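Lab notebook, design round three. We kept the backbone fixed and only want residue identities now. Task for the bench partner: fill in a sequence for the structure below.
Input structure tokens:
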């Protein structure tokens, strides 16, 4: 799942399997956990962490991991009867080669990447017991440390009926000095 010039390792963490993507000699890295399909770490060439993960994070079901880049699906915030921010953050995702899926960006030979899929239907979620879906994710770490995440939701209902959902990457950036942080008018860029 990784290109020849990039490193790709599989390791085990108490929350399950995770993938470590590295870009030598630049030193960039990203860690992607199968539990929640979540990027837990993204480091620059100096090894500085760009994402925040709480020291109190719990790496097991039914708890979502607080930090990194969690995926909120099929809801974000307070939409319907599902648990807060949906169930994708608390499910095991599977590694899968999505190279034949044409609507994903094709990783170049100098990219490290991992493809994950969530197709586990949770029990006990009102209004979702009859929906069938595949949530696909490709995480690419480029040679200059850029991190690209692409997701696709595929409706595989046998009855052909559509369903509604919300989706979000809920990124927790690491901030070294919160008192020096300013949020400007993003629409004046």
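Proposed sequence:
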């Amino acid at each position: 799942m990784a290109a020849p010039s990039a490193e790709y390792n599989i390791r085990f963490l108490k929350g399950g399997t995770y993938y470590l993507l590295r870009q030598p000699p630049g030193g960039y890295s990203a860690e992607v956990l199968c539990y929640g399909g979540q990027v837990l770490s993204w480091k620059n060439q100096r090894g500085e962490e760009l994402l925040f993960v709480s020291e109190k994070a719990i790496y097991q079901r039914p708890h979502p991991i607080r930090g990194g880049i969690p995926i909120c699906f099929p809801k974000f915030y307070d939409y319907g009867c599902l648990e807060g921010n949906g169930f994708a953050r608390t499910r095991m995702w599977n590694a899968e080669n999505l190279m034949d899926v044409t609507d994903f960006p094709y990783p170049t030979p100098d990219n490290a990447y991992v493809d994950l899929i969530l197709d586990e239907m949770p029990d006990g979620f009102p209004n979702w017991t009859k929906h069938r879906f595949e949530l696909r994710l490709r995480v690419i770490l480029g040679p200059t440390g850029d991190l690209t995440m692409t997701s696709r939701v595929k409706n595989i209902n046998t009855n052909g009926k559509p369903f509604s959902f919300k989706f979000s990457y809920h990124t927790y950036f690491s901030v070294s000095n919160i008192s020096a942080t300013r949020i400007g008018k993003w629409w004046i860029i």
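Keep this in mind before ordering anything: Strands lie at 7-13, 16-23, 28-33, 38-43, 71-72, 94-95, 112-118, 133-141, 147-155, 168-169.
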